[in-house]
């Protein structure tokens, strides 16, 4: 074949047949790709090769694109901006998923609670609240996370890297997102508005938590009793009543 190294009459016939459909198939896992370069990049996942190294932390990647995307977690750059609200994202897929939240259609339903979502990705993230799945583990401490980007952000706390400085006070942060959220304390900016009441928030996570007071969604369930909660912190506080754990001690008496 004049495109790759496939040889032999029988192999070549099968190989050229796949080229008619403009697809390239991985022989290890059967995934198909439209470009040979994409297949070659994918094969590095099987070989374990990670030639693209971040010059700001120990992270290494099999694809240059993934390394460039990772470096935005250091700079805080989020080039994908929603044209309907202030949200910004690193990946195009994240923006596409987010924009579905502006539509009224919610076709993805949780089979464990009444919550509905406008994208399958949101449903998968939500299901982790039920299952407690945290498959991304820090190799420097016992911390576990349900998404890879949360683990990458956490690992910056070990390196002590805080290159993002507030120009209004001495505060410094490990990533640009935290700095932007912090600056809203100075400016009073609250760009996230509830569409069900006049409430406004400086962070999107606070808005999401607040909206559960309208929907009565309680995705956090105690595994020791039937109690359910809207916020993870309330569920964790509740579980201390089962263990009799009392972490807050008075420093003035026994």
TrEMBL record:
Pfam families: zf-C2H2 (PF00096), zf-C2H2_6 (PF13912)
Entry keywords, A to Z: Metal-binding, Methyltransferase, Nucleus, Repeat, Transcription, Transcription regulation, Transferase, Zinc, Zinc-finger
Compartment(s) where it occurs, according to its Swiss-Prot or TrEMBL record: Nucleus
Coiled coil (UniProt feature): none
Predominant place of localization: nucleus
Domain of life: Eukaryota
GO molecular function, one term: RNA polymerase II cis-regulatory region sequence-specific DNA binding
GO cellular component, one term: nucleoplasm
GO BP annotation list: methylation
Signal peptide, first to last residue: none
All residue ranges annotated as the C2H2-type domain in the record: 24-51, 52-79, 80-107, 108-135, 136-163, 164-191, 192-219, 220-247
PANTHER family per UniProt: C2H2-TYPE DOMAIN-CONTAINING PROTEIN, ZINC FINGER AND BTB DOMAIN-CONTAINING
Name used for this protein in its record: Putative histone-lysine n-methyltransferase prdm9-like protein
Species name: Ornithodoros turicata
